[in-house]
Specification:
Shape: globular
Distance between the termini: 38 Å
Strand content: 15-25%
Number of helices: 9
Strand order of the largest sheet: 3-2-1-4-5-8-9-10-11-12
Structural class: alpha/beta
Helix content: 25-40%
């Protein structure tokens, strides 16, 4: 019987749609993981809609939930997964929980999507309070094992700009030096030889050899853009990267190919369904662009590889 692998996921929750824990839970369960979810917020739907309602969990309430797990001795985890957070005290409490769990299990892997902002039309901006940046730099990234920033977030964390692949690799080295062994820049505006319809993603993984030396594997992926605004894709990416790096711990190339290819299949199915619902010539709504997760179960379980990674 396969050994149980359990994930503690601390992310947002929506009643309708797929972001945060809703985007992470189904794929991880499909891929064989037990997942315990703490909902940092509970909203009716994601904030890309015209209206939303709901509640936000604070740091004290997070600590209370974790204490309940401790009292029942069920706070044993193999992975911690975190995403969007708006409050620095809540984020600091997450770090305290991760540190305690790592004391219990030295092999625990912390996968962090440091959600802070993005670039639009070449200009970057933060969509969380700026006081979260030093918490990420000084507390979160040093205890993380895998991080999945976009280009703008990688620049914020490293304090360096990225204008070329060489500069991106240097930024990933800076992030490695801060703590994580695996860094994946999930999207960038670096030029693709295949044209402007493609996005570039880069990955870097440090591995220790049996003789004690360290080797670094670096990869590059070129992904076709989809002309639509999806919400929850970063949460889905981080969850699937957790799963595929677990199944291929010493092969970042294969783990990223499976992650990105599954993403491709989910997004292509989603945009096809959304356009069909919207009607010819009509722009799909936020509701119509919700990720088609259940319909993509087979692609999540065993993705056909459509995005090949190049080893640098």
């Amino acid at each position: 019987m396969e050994e149980e692998c359990r994930v503690l996921s601390i992310q947002s929750h929506v009643v309708r749609g797929y972001v945060g824990n809703r985007a992470a839970t189904f794929p991880l369960q499909v891929l064989g993981f037990e997942i315990d979810a703490v909902n940092s917020v509970q909203f009716s739907n994601h904030t890309g809609y015209a209206h939303w309602k709901g509640q936000v969990l604070n740091a004290h309430e997070l600590q209370e939930l974790y204490e309940g797990l401790k009292l029942n001795c069920v706070n044993k985890y193999d992975y911690v997964l975190t995403g969007y957070t708006r409050d620095k005290s809540f984020l600091a409490m997450v770090v305290d929980i991760v540190r305690e769990l790592k004391q219990q299990n030295s092999r625990l892997v912390y996968v962090c999507d440091p959600v802070m902002g993005d670039k639009w039309n070449g200009e970057g901006s933060m969509y969380v309070p700026e006081d979260l940046l030093p918490v990420y730099r000084e507390k979160v990234v040093p205890v993380a094992d895998i991080i999945t920033p976009n280009q703008f977030e990688a620049e914020l964390l490293s304090g360096r700009k990225i204008h070329s692949q060489e500069e991106a690799l240097a930024v990933m080295d800076v992030l490695h030096a801060m703590g994580p062994d695996t860094v994946v820049i999930t999207s960038s505006d670096l030029p693709s030889s295949r044209g402007s319809d493609y996005l570039i993603a880069l990955g870097s993984q440090r591995m220790k050899r049996p003789d004690g030396t360290t080797v670094t594997e670096r990869i590059r992926m070129e992904m076709r853009r989809v002309d639509a605004v999806f919400v929850g894709t970063g949460d889905l990416f981080a969850a699937m990267l957790l799963a595929w790096t677990h199944k291929h711990p010493d092969n970042l190339k294969v783990a990223c190919e499976k992650t990105v290819s599954a993403m491709h299949h989910v997004l292509q199915r989603t945009i096809r369904c959304a356009r069909a619902q919207a009607g010819e010539g009509q722009k799909p709504s936020s509701a119509q662009l919700e990720l088609r997760m259940v319909q993509s179960k087979k692609d999540i379980e065993d993705p056909e590889i459509v995005v090949q990674a190049t080893v640098l």
